[in-house]
Amino acid sequence: MGDWLLNLPIPWMTLVIFAAAYIVAACVYFVVVRLAASDRGRRAFKAFSPGMLPVLGTIFALLVAFVAVQVWNDFDKAKLAVATEASSVRAVVLFAETLPDEQRTQLRTLVNRHIEDAVNREWPEMAHERATLTTLATHLVEALQLTVSLKPQDESQRTAQREIVAALQRALDARRQRVIISQSEVGPVKWAAILLQGLCTLIAIAIVHSDDRLTCAIAVALFATGIALSSLLIAAYSRPFTGEISVKSELLQEVVPSETAASHATPE
């Protein structure tokens, strides 16, 4: 699905998806009812086995479940990556308290710049699937180089140096993970499979109930509602960093040290 739909507020996305499903259902209903009015169409529809409905419905349900599991797993992984990155850079800030003033200030500045860059540049890029691993997290890399070059004066600073290096490595890995996950989406083949299977099931329902127009209309409307609801749930979560339901950057913004938060943190 296009960016324009995935970036809509949930009420508007719901309206668009449900309207499309009901329009298709109405077209199926009128075509089947019109064909059933002829003798040839009536004979063909009566020969259609109602036993096909459970098979087609089960296939549709399996396709939806298969795609939904992937979508929600990616969403959970995205939340975990952001939480890990935030906790890691927070650990850097905390362990930096034991370092000399100059190094502590430099580390804090680099952490703040990394968060600013992530919020103001990377998040919009991830929302449009433009973020790539070719762009390095330069501020975290600089912080890692600075930490490695430190000459600890006592055991507490040596311990802090080891912990800061480990935390920066975790932050870099978590950042790589969120950039990779931002590229995940429900591909056109999967969407086509779900929607085509749903359409086939919808047509089969209309054929089976074509001898009673009211029953046919009710059955088609009910299944169209199921198709729309399934599509809405998948579309709303299909890209972890896109749309109203997405992984936000608040956790990273909360890491900014309180004394500099006002000047460095930029709201989304």
SSE inventory with pairings:
Elements (H helix, E strand, L loop, with lengths): L2 H4 L3 H27 L2 H8 L5 H44 L5 H27 L10 H11 L6 H27 L6 H21 L4 H25 L12 H4 L4 H7 L4
Helix pairs in contact: 2-8, 2-9, 4-7, 4-8, 4-9, 5-6, 6-7, 8-9
Radius of gyration: 27 Å
Termini Cα gap: 24 Å
- Percent in helix: over 70%
Would you report the number of β strands?
A: 0
| Most strands sheet | none
Order of helices and strands: HHHHHHHHHHH
Principal-axes geometry comes out as rod-shaped
Q: pLDDT average, as an integer?
A: 90
Give unreliable regions as ranges.
Answer: 258-268
Number of helices, where a helix is a run of at least 4 consecutive DSSP H or I residues: 11
Strand content: under 5%
Helix/strand-derived class? mainly alpha
What does this structure look like?
Helix 2 (10-36) packs across helix 8 (188-208), helix 4 (52-95) packs parallel to helix 9 and helix 6 packs antiparallel against helix 7 (155-181). By secondary structure, the chain is mostly helical. The chain has a domain at 81-185 and 251-268. It has 11 helices and no strands.
Short description, anyone?
With 268 residues, the protein is mainly alpha-helical. The chain has 11 helices and no strands.
Pick out its properties.
single chain, 268 residues, mainly alpha, rod-shaped
